[in-house]
């Protein structure tokens, strides 16, 4: 660089212009070097990065590489332009404005890169780990919160670069968050419970659950409440915080098979073995009843006026339990009648004794 200046005439070598020309030449070299680096990065991504991503089983890295390659090369060029302009002997205001503008551009590009990487990670988590319901309900909200976090972080870094006091901003954000949290305490509790329900997944949409005396099918799991359609075709809208703090029964878990039970009493003089055989045979003849596990009948206890038997059977879908129970009851009643098995009525014997001590004497 000094060799180029050697050929200038002595009267043309004004120190100021000589210094300015030297700095401009260095800035041009910096821009050229960073431009070559961006091209080198493009070649590395196209050849090496693509091959490495193709060797993995997942396509997550392929999508991330595709989305960040363009902004990454732009970031390298803008970084070189920022360094080149920052070292030029410009006027104070012009230099500060130019370098500040390029700094903001670089921070914006970095924020875009971070957002794209985070977006792909959230999509992959929602699709492969959390499930479709979480992707539909939670992921848009999580993506918005992450976007707000990235924007606020970029804003704080930018303000810090221009020597602005960010303590007041952080304090204002903290006070505002506290005020919002106190004002929407119940809503936030339901939202946190909604996150818990969707991630922990004690039940899913379509499952039949029992909550206390209420039984119904889950229609929708929202961030604030869960909608349940009861068996009488009414809708229950239950806050998520109440569901998280209650004990419930999921009839569709771990699978949709349902188990039914039928209780019947026979007379003490009846053949118990024959009665159990008839009950099992009646259940097997019903199409809805599964052959495996096979129906089973047991003598449960000795009642006051009858021997109490119970029949246990399985159906392929828990929604078929009631219909199968009706058919089995009808078949058992007919089979008992044909084979002389009686179903006694409850009986009670009352013995009335005459009180001879207080009887009137003749």
TrEMBL record:
Domain of life: Bacteria
Transmembrane segments: 20-37, 94-118, 138-159, 166-184
Domain Mechanosensitive ion channel transmembrane helices 2/3: 147-185
Keywords per UniProt: Cell membrane, Membrane, Transmembrane, Transmembrane helix
Domain named Mechanosensitive ion channel MscS C-terminal: residues: 262-343
InterPro entries assigned to the protein according to its UniProt record, in alphabetical order: LSM_dom_sf, MS_channel_1st, MS_channel_C, MscS_beta-dom_sf, MscS_channel_2nd, MscS_channel_C_sf, MscS_channel_TM-2
Topological type in the membrane: Multi-pass membrane protein
Location of the Mechanosensitive ion channel MscS domain: 186-251
Subcellular location: Cell membrane
Main location: membrane
Family: Belongs to the MscS (TC 1.A.23) family.
PANTHER family: INNER MEMBRANE PROTEIN (PTHR30566:SF25), YNAI-RELATED MECHANOSENSITIVE ION CHANNEL (PTHR30566)
Protein name: Mechanosensitive ion channel
Species name: Geomonas paludis
Lineage of the species this protein comes from: Bacteria, Pseudomonadati, Thermodesulfobacteriota, Desulfuromonadia, Geobacterales
């Amino acid at each position: 660089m000094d060799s180029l200046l050697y050929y200038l005439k002595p009267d043309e070598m004004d120190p100021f212009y000589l210094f300015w020309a030297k700095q401009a030449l260095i800035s041009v070299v910096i821009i050229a070097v960073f431009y070559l680096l961006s091209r080198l990065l493009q070649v590395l991504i196209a050849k090496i990065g693509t091959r490495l991503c193709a060797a993995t089983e997942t396509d997550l890295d392929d999508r991330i590489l595709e989305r960040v390659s363009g902004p990454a090369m732009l970031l390298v060029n803008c970084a070189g332009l920022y360094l080149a302009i920052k070292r030029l002997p410009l006027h104070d205001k012009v230099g500060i404005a130019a370098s500040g503008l390029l700094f903001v551009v670089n921070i914006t590009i970095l924020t875009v890169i971070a957002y794209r990487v985070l977006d792909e990670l959230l999509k992959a988590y929602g699709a492969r780990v959390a499930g479709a319901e979480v992707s539909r309900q939670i992921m848009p909200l999580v993506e918005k919160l992450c976007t707000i976090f990235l924007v606020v972080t970029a804003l704080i870094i930018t303000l810090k670069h221009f020597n602005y006091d960010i303590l007041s901003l952080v304090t204002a954000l903290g006070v505002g968050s506290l005020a919002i949290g106190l004002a929407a305490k119940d809503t936030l509790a339901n939202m946190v419970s909604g996150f818990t329900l969707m991630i922990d997944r004690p039940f899913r949409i379509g499952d039949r659950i029992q909550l206390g005396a209420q039984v119904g099918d889950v229609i929708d799991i929202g961030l604030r409440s869960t909608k349940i359609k009861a068996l009488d075709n009414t809708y229950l809208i239950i806050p998520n915080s109440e569901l998280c703090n209650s004990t419930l029964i999921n009839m569709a878990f771990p699978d949709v098979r349902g188990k039914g039970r039928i209780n019947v009493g026979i007379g003490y003089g009846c053949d118990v073995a024959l009665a159990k055989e008839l009950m099992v045979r009646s259940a097997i003849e019903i199409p809805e009843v599964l052959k495996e596990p096979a129906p089973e009948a047991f003598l449960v206890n000795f009642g006051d006026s009858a021997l109490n038997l119970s029949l246990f059977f399985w159906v392929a879908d828990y929604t078929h339990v009631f219909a199968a129970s009706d058919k089995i009851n009808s078949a058992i009643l007919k089979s008992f009648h044909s084979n002389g098995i009686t179903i006694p009525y409850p009986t009670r014997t009352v013995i009335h004794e005459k009180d001879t001590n207080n009887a009137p004497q003749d």
